[in-house]
Write a structure and sequence with these properties.
The protein is α+β, with helices and mostly antiparallel strands. Helix content is 34%, strand content 21%. The longest helix is centred in the N-terminal third of the chain and has 31 residues, at 26-56.
């Protein structure tokens, strides 16, 4: 069934259904709705079968069973044809059809090595999962500025001022850097997809692809946000030098104590109290967990929400637990080691390009098929006044 015939039949059925609904004949209306659903299912099944047939036959063009070419107007990356073509590209290496490749070249600098854009539907699910899975990622401020452009910090972190009626607002100075410049750092994620993926349905493929890409990107992004050195990756929070008096040092061989937390809390400026939170590993948190204050009250608590997820708190301040991003506390170290810090993650700006692309190629040395997702990302601290670090001295 070509698309034109399908659309004509569907329109006729919809018109008939509308007439039945206007006449109040609900029984026949429901029957007509079932006919529409059956027609949609038939066309979808035939489109899927045709796409699969094109893939196994080695055809470089994957398209729905219709006449003409795929339209490049509108949101082509959200079309069913492109989503299926992308699935066949990732799972079987089938080339993206020329109709889509032409549109890709219009937005890609290198026309000789075009990396297909991840379909919009799949991309939205990746972003949604990244926001859900990441513990740190959902706390930072997200932007999508163009790279290599100097951006005033007031644009990414605006402030409000009072003004008299009829008067303007004076330009304010800020103690943080006047501008920030985001670079183009490539985040490359190698996606491992087993042989079974080649026989998956579109929905199953997209679910697995979303999980693999999002989980890997979250891990890499959160590592960069915490400790990135700024070389070919975002500059992390711990790459910043704390304001004078806010770098708490613990002598080697000294056990953790309640006084350590009090010193850190005292170093945090009162104007940054609201959004700041602790960040440490679970093992470090549990080292504090059994401590009590002078009144015998525990200084740390673990609450459990409706979903059963633990919410950890130090003296009323939330604790962000990270795994593998910070070292556990130990009394002896070979080099100065920062094991915990306080910071308002809203003062960290993560600038991302969400037009994530994917590329499939063969490693000729190992004969492995590599499936790689790439995005552009950079990040910087725009206000470090909320940063208080705890460091064990060597």
């Amino acid at each position: 069934m070509v698309k034109e015939i399908y659309m004509s039949k569907r329109k006729a059925l919809v018109d008939e259904a509308q007439t039945l609904l206007d006449n109040g004949d609900m029984e026949k209306f429901n029957d007509k709705m079932k006919e529409i659903e059956e027609l949609d299912a038939q066309f979808e099944a035939q489109a899927t079968a045709q796409a699969n047939l094109n893939a196994v036959s080695g055809s470089s063009v994957v398209q729905a069973p219709q006449t003409g070419t795929v339209s490049t107007s509108g949101e082509i990356y959200d079309s069913m044809e492109y989503r299926k073509a992308f699935m066949n590209y990732v799972t079987q290496g089938t080339a993206i059809p020329a109709e889509f490749s032409g549109a890709l070249r219009n937005v890609t600098t290198k026309t000789t090595d075009v990396a297909p854009v991840i379909p919009t539907t799949t991309l939205n699910r990746i972003i949604e999962r990244m926001e859900t899975v990441g513990d740190i990622l959902k706390l930072v401020t997200r932007t999508s500025y163009k790279g290599a452009v100097a951006i005033p910090t007031s644009s990414v972190k605006p402030t409000a001022t009072w003004a008299a009626e009829g008067s303007g607002v004076a330009v304010q100075k800020t103690e943080v850097d006047g501008t920030i410049i985001f670079a183009y750092h490539k985040l490359k994620i190698a996606v491992s997809m087993t042989l079974e993926v080649q026989t998956m349905s579109l929905s199953a493929f997209e679910t697995k692809f979303v999980k693999d890409v999002a989980d890997a990107m979250v891990k890499a992004l959160e590592a960069a946000i915490i400790s990135g050195d700024g070389v070919d990756k975002p500059k992390g929070i711990l790459a910043e030098t704390p304001v004078s008096g806010q770098a708490i040092e613990i002598a080697s061989g000294t056990a953790l104590s309640y006084d350590t937390l009090i010193e850190a809390e005292a170093a945090l400026p009162v104007e940054y109290e609201g959004g700041a939170r602790w960040c440490m590993t679970k093992k470090t948190f549990m080292a504090f967990y059994g401590m009590t204050d002078d009144s015998g009250q525990p200084i740390a608590r673990i609450n459990y929400g409706i979903d059963g997820k633990p919410e950890r708190i130090f003296n009323g301040r939330p604790v962000a637990i990270v795994s593998g991003l910070l070292p556990n506390y130990t009394t002896t170290v070979s080099a100065d080691t920062t094991f915990a810090f306080i910071f308002d993650f809203a003062d960290y700006i993560l600038n991302t390009n969400h037009e994530i692309t994917a590329k499939v190629y063969e490693d000729h040395d190992t004969d492995d098929v590599i499936r790689k997702a790439v995005m552009l990302v950079d990040g910087k601290v725009v206000d470090k006044n909320s940063l208080v670090t705890l460091t064990v001295k060597a």
